[in-house]
Design a protein that fits this description.
Rossmann fold, 2 domains, 11% strand, 10 helices, alpha/beta, four-stranded parallel beta sheet
Length: 297
Protein backbone atom coordinates (compact mmCIF):
# COMPACT_ATOMS: atom_id res chain seq x y z
CA UNK A 1 0.00 0.00 0.00
CA UNK A 2 2.79 2.37 0.96
CA UNK A 3 4.61 1.63 -2.29
CA UNK A 4 1.46 2.53 -4.26
CA UNK A 5 1.10 5.84 -2.44
CA UNK A 6 4.74 6.71 -3.06
CA UNK A 7 4.41 5.75 -6.73
CA UNK A 8 1.28 7.85 -7.12
CA UNK A 9 3.06 10.80 -5.47
CA UNK A 10 5.97 10.69 -7.93
CA UNK A 11 3.60 10.25 -10.86
CA UNK A 12 1.79 13.39 -9.73
CA UNK A 13 5.07 15.31 -9.61
CA UNK A 14 5.74 14.39 -13.22
CA UNK A 15 2.50 15.95 -14.46
CA UNK A 16 2.60 19.08 -12.29
CA UNK A 17 3.64 22.23 -14.15
CA UNK A 18 7.20 23.41 -13.54
CA UNK A 19 7.63 26.16 -10.99
CA UNK A 20 7.73 29.67 -12.44
CA UNK A 21 10.87 31.48 -11.37
CA UNK A 22 10.58 35.18 -10.56
CA UNK A 23 13.58 37.09 -11.90
CA UNK A 24 14.33 40.78 -11.36
CA UNK A 25 17.18 42.73 -12.92
CA UNK A 26 18.40 46.14 -11.87
CA UNK A 27 18.66 47.68 -15.35
CA UNK A 28 17.23 47.12 -18.82
CA UNK A 29 20.37 45.65 -20.47
CA UNK A 30 20.51 42.89 -17.84
CA UNK A 31 16.81 42.27 -18.45
CA UNK A 32 17.60 41.74 -22.14
CA UNK A 33 20.28 39.20 -21.26
CA UNK A 34 18.01 37.36 -18.81
CA UNK A 35 15.19 37.29 -21.37
CA UNK A 36 17.32 35.02 -23.54
CA UNK A 37 17.99 32.61 -20.68
CA UNK A 38 14.76 32.18 -18.69
CA UNK A 39 12.01 29.67 -19.37
CA UNK A 40 8.79 30.71 -21.09
CA UNK A 41 6.77 30.45 -17.88
CA UNK A 42 9.24 32.44 -15.76
CA UNK A 43 8.43 36.01 -14.67
CA UNK A 44 10.96 38.70 -15.61
CA UNK A 45 10.90 42.34 -14.50
CA UNK A 46 13.29 45.27 -14.25
CA UNK A 47 13.78 47.65 -11.34
CA UNK A 48 14.71 50.95 -13.00
CA UNK A 49 11.99 52.58 -15.13
CA UNK A 50 12.85 54.05 -18.55
CA UNK A 51 14.93 57.18 -18.26
CA UNK A 52 16.14 56.48 -14.72
CA UNK A 53 19.86 56.47 -14.04
CA UNK A 54 21.52 53.71 -11.99
CA UNK A 55 23.91 56.38 -10.75
CA UNK A 56 21.22 58.32 -8.89
CA UNK A 57 18.09 56.16 -8.46
CA UNK A 58 16.20 56.22 -5.14
CA UNK A 59 14.41 53.03 -4.09
CA UNK A 60 10.67 53.12 -3.41
CA UNK A 61 8.94 50.81 -0.87
CA UNK A 62 7.38 48.89 -3.77
CA UNK A 63 10.87 48.33 -5.22
CA UNK A 64 12.09 46.86 -1.94
CA UNK A 65 9.11 44.49 -1.76
CA UNK A 66 9.68 43.30 -5.32
CA UNK A 67 13.39 42.72 -4.69
CA UNK A 68 12.67 40.76 -1.54
CA UNK A 69 10.13 38.56 -3.34
CA UNK A 70 12.28 37.71 -6.36
CA UNK A 71 13.71 34.19 -6.65
CA UNK A 72 16.73 35.60 -8.53
CA UNK A 73 17.93 39.21 -8.48
CA UNK A 74 20.61 40.23 -10.98
CA UNK A 75 22.61 43.44 -10.64
CA UNK A 76 26.01 44.66 -11.80
CA UNK A 77 27.30 45.53 -8.34
CA UNK A 78 28.11 48.51 -6.12
CA UNK A 79 30.33 49.89 -8.87
CA UNK A 80 27.13 50.89 -10.72
CA UNK A 81 24.02 50.51 -8.51
CA UNK A 82 25.43 51.76 -5.22
CA UNK A 83 21.88 52.33 -3.95
CA UNK A 84 21.32 48.54 -3.88
CA UNK A 85 24.41 47.66 -1.84
CA UNK A 86 22.87 47.50 1.63
CA UNK A 87 19.66 45.82 0.52
CA UNK A 88 21.34 43.06 -1.48
CA UNK A 89 24.47 42.58 0.63
CA UNK A 90 23.18 39.52 2.48
CA UNK A 91 20.44 38.39 0.10
CA UNK A 92 21.20 34.82 -1.07
CA UNK A 93 19.05 35.23 -4.18
CA UNK A 94 21.12 38.17 -5.44
CA UNK A 95 23.69 37.62 -8.19
CA UNK A 96 26.38 40.33 -8.20
CA UNK A 97 27.96 40.17 -11.64
CA UNK A 98 31.19 42.02 -10.76
CA UNK A 99 31.86 39.24 -8.24
CA UNK A 100 31.41 36.38 -10.71
CA UNK A 101 34.57 34.30 -10.86
CA UNK A 102 36.34 34.51 -14.20
CA UNK A 103 34.45 37.56 -15.46
CA UNK A 104 36.96 39.55 -17.60
CA UNK A 105 36.37 43.00 -16.14
CA UNK A 106 38.01 46.19 -17.34
CA UNK A 107 39.64 48.45 -14.79
CA UNK A 108 39.89 52.20 -15.04
CA UNK A 109 43.44 53.50 -14.91
CA UNK A 110 45.57 56.19 -16.47
CA UNK A 111 45.61 54.29 -19.75
CA UNK A 112 41.85 54.47 -19.95
CA UNK A 113 41.83 58.16 -19.04
CA UNK A 114 38.99 57.73 -16.59
CA UNK A 115 39.58 59.70 -13.42
CA UNK A 116 37.11 60.91 -10.85
CA UNK A 117 34.14 58.68 -11.74
CA UNK A 118 32.83 57.36 -8.45
CA UNK A 119 31.66 53.75 -8.89
CA UNK A 120 32.11 52.71 -5.30
CA UNK A 121 35.34 51.50 -3.74
CA UNK A 122 36.65 49.73 -6.83
CA UNK A 123 38.33 50.79 -10.04
CA UNK A 124 36.08 48.57 -12.17
CA UNK A 125 34.34 49.65 -15.37
CA UNK A 126 30.77 48.55 -14.58
CA UNK A 127 29.33 48.76 -18.11
CA UNK A 128 30.07 45.07 -18.62
CA UNK A 129 26.94 44.29 -20.66
CA UNK A 130 28.49 46.20 -23.58
CA UNK A 131 31.12 43.48 -24.03
CA UNK A 132 29.91 40.29 -25.78
CA UNK A 133 32.64 38.08 -24.27
CA UNK A 134 31.98 39.43 -20.78
CA UNK A 135 28.25 38.93 -21.31
CA UNK A 136 28.77 35.26 -22.16
CA UNK A 137 30.45 34.70 -18.79
CA UNK A 138 27.68 36.66 -17.06
CA UNK A 139 25.05 34.59 -18.90
CA UNK A 140 26.61 31.38 -17.61
CA UNK A 141 26.45 32.73 -14.04
CA UNK A 142 22.82 33.77 -14.53
CA UNK A 143 22.00 30.31 -15.85
CA UNK A 144 23.58 28.72 -12.77
CA UNK A 145 21.51 31.01 -10.53
CA UNK A 146 18.34 30.01 -12.39
CA UNK A 147 19.18 26.32 -11.99
CA UNK A 148 19.82 26.81 -8.27
CA UNK A 149 16.40 28.46 -7.95
CA UNK A 150 14.53 25.86 -10.05
CA UNK A 151 16.59 22.67 -10.50
CA UNK A 152 13.86 20.80 -12.38
CA UNK A 153 14.28 23.19 -15.35
CA UNK A 154 18.05 22.78 -15.58
CA UNK A 155 18.01 21.20 -19.04
CA UNK A 156 15.84 23.98 -20.42
CA UNK A 157 18.06 26.69 -18.95
CA UNK A 158 21.20 25.08 -20.34
CA UNK A 159 19.62 24.79 -23.79
CA UNK A 160 18.67 28.46 -23.65
CA UNK A 161 22.25 29.38 -22.71
CA UNK A 162 23.63 27.44 -25.68
CA UNK A 163 21.23 29.21 -28.05
CA UNK A 164 22.06 32.59 -26.47
CA UNK A 165 25.79 32.06 -27.05
CA UNK A 166 25.27 31.03 -30.67
CA UNK A 167 23.24 34.19 -31.26
CA UNK A 168 26.01 36.31 -29.73
CA UNK A 169 28.54 34.74 -32.09
CA UNK A 170 26.29 35.55 -35.03
CA UNK A 171 25.78 39.13 -33.84
CA UNK A 172 29.53 39.63 -33.39
CA UNK A 173 30.27 38.34 -36.88
CA UNK A 174 27.69 40.72 -38.35
CA UNK A 175 29.09 43.71 -36.46
CA UNK A 176 32.68 42.89 -37.41
CA UNK A 177 31.68 42.62 -41.07
CA UNK A 178 29.95 46.01 -41.01
CA UNK A 179 32.76 47.75 -39.14
CA UNK A 180 35.37 46.41 -41.57
CA UNK A 181 34.09 48.90 -44.16
CA UNK A 182 34.44 51.94 -41.87
CA UNK A 183 36.84 54.76 -42.55
CA UNK A 184 39.59 55.31 -40.02
CA UNK A 185 38.44 58.39 -38.14
CA UNK A 186 38.21 59.43 -34.52
CA UNK A 187 35.06 60.02 -32.49
CA UNK A 188 33.92 61.50 -29.20
CA UNK A 189 31.40 59.83 -26.88
CA UNK A 190 29.19 61.61 -24.38
CA UNK A 191 29.90 59.22 -21.52
CA UNK A 192 32.98 57.05 -21.08
CA UNK A 193 30.94 53.85 -21.00
CA UNK A 194 31.82 51.96 -24.17
CA UNK A 195 35.21 50.46 -23.36
CA UNK A 196 34.00 46.84 -23.41
CA UNK A 197 32.39 47.30 -26.83
CA UNK A 198 35.41 49.17 -28.17
CA UNK A 199 37.80 46.47 -26.94
CA UNK A 200 35.67 43.76 -28.53
CA UNK A 201 35.66 45.37 -31.97
CA UNK A 202 39.00 47.18 -32.10
CA UNK A 203 37.62 50.72 -31.76
CA UNK A 204 39.39 53.63 -30.09
CA UNK A 205 37.68 56.88 -29.16
CA UNK A 206 39.32 60.29 -29.35
CA UNK A 207 37.79 61.36 -26.05
CA UNK A 208 34.61 61.84 -24.03
CA UNK A 209 32.49 64.74 -22.80
CA UNK A 210 32.10 63.44 -19.26
CA UNK A 211 33.08 60.52 -17.06
CA UNK A 212 29.89 60.81 -15.01
CA UNK A 213 26.59 61.16 -16.92
CA UNK A 214 25.03 63.04 -14.01
CA UNK A 215 27.61 65.83 -14.34
CA UNK A 216 27.91 68.39 -17.12
CA UNK A 217 31.23 68.61 -18.93
CA UNK A 218 33.38 71.56 -17.97
CA UNK A 219 34.30 74.47 -20.22
CA UNK A 220 37.87 73.17 -20.60
CA UNK A 221 36.58 69.82 -21.87
CA UNK A 222 34.30 71.53 -24.42
CA UNK A 223 37.19 73.66 -25.70
CA UNK A 224 39.37 70.56 -26.07
CA UNK A 225 36.66 68.72 -28.01
CA UNK A 226 35.99 71.70 -30.28
CA UNK A 227 39.71 71.99 -31.00
CA UNK A 228 39.83 68.27 -31.82
CA UNK A 229 37.00 68.68 -34.30
CA UNK A 230 38.61 71.72 -35.92
CA UNK A 231 41.84 69.76 -36.29
CA UNK A 232 39.90 66.80 -37.75
CA UNK A 233 41.10 64.51 -34.96
CA UNK A 234 37.50 63.27 -34.90
CA UNK A 235 34.64 63.48 -37.38
CA UNK A 236 31.88 61.95 -35.29
CA UNK A 237 30.15 62.62 -31.96
CA UNK A 238 27.95 60.15 -30.12
CA UNK A 239 25.33 61.65 -27.84
CA UNK A 240 23.02 59.91 -25.37
CA UNK A 241 19.30 60.50 -24.70
CA UNK A 242 19.94 62.73 -21.66
CA UNK A 243 22.57 64.85 -23.42
CA UNK A 244 21.89 68.58 -23.66
CA UNK A 245 21.61 69.49 -27.39
CA UNK A 246 22.99 72.97 -26.65
CA UNK A 247 26.34 71.43 -25.71
CA UNK A 248 26.51 69.65 -29.06
CA UNK A 249 25.75 72.90 -30.85
CA UNK A 250 28.50 74.63 -28.90
CA UNK A 251 31.23 72.26 -30.09
CA UNK A 252 29.97 71.42 -33.59
CA UNK A 253 29.18 74.95 -34.82
CA UNK A 254 30.92 75.50 -38.19
CA UNK A 255 32.33 71.96 -38.08
CA UNK A 256 31.59 69.18 -40.55
CA UNK A 257 30.86 66.44 -38.03
CA UNK A 258 28.39 63.58 -37.77
CA UNK A 259 26.21 63.39 -34.68
CA UNK A 260 24.46 60.14 -33.75
CA UNK A 261 22.88 58.85 -30.56
CA UNK A 262 23.95 55.84 -28.48
CA UNK A 263 21.88 54.53 -25.60
CA UNK A 264 23.88 52.21 -23.31
CA UNK A 265 20.72 51.46 -21.30
CA UNK A 266 18.87 50.10 -24.36
CA UNK A 267 15.71 52.11 -23.65
CA UNK A 268 14.10 51.53 -27.04
CA UNK A 269 15.00 47.82 -27.45
CA UNK A 270 12.12 45.37 -26.99
CA UNK A 271 12.47 42.67 -24.34
CA UNK A 272 12.51 39.42 -26.32
CA UNK A 273 14.62 36.24 -26.19
CA UNK A 274 17.00 37.79 -28.76
CA UNK A 275 16.72 41.34 -27.45
CA UNK A 276 20.31 41.51 -26.25
CA UNK A 277 21.67 40.52 -29.65
CA UNK A 278 19.37 43.11 -31.27
CA UNK A 279 20.83 45.69 -28.88
CA UNK A 280 24.41 44.74 -29.77
CA UNK A 281 23.75 44.86 -33.50
CA UNK A 282 21.98 48.21 -33.21
CA UNK A 283 25.00 49.66 -31.43
CA UNK A 284 27.31 48.21 -34.06
CA UNK A 285 25.23 49.79 -36.85
CA UNK A 286 25.39 53.18 -35.13
CA UNK A 287 29.17 53.03 -34.80
CA UNK A 288 29.45 51.96 -38.44
CA UNK A 289 27.19 54.73 -39.71
CA UNK A 290 29.01 57.41 -37.76
CA UNK A 291 32.47 56.23 -38.79
CA UNK A 292 31.37 55.85 -42.42
CA UNK A 293 30.07 59.46 -42.29
CA UNK A 294 26.43 58.50 -42.76
CA UNK A 295 24.41 61.22 -41.08
CA UNK A 296 20.95 59.65 -40.64
CA UNK A 297 20.27 58.98 -36.95
Amino acid sequence: MTARIIGAFFALLLVLPAQATTVMTSIKPLQLIAAGLIAEDDHLSVLLPPGASPHSYALKPSDIRALNQADVTIWVGPELELFLSKLLADQPSALTLTQVEGLPLRHYDGGHDHHGHDHGDHNIDPHLWLGPDVTRVAARAITEALIDATPNKADQYRANLNRFNVQIEQAMAEIESELSARTQSGYFVFHDAYGYFEDAFGLEKTGHFTVDPSQKPGAKTLVTIRRGLLNHDATCIFTEPQFNPALIEAVTRHNDVNVLELDPLATSIQVTPDGYQVFLKDMGKRFTRCLKHETTN
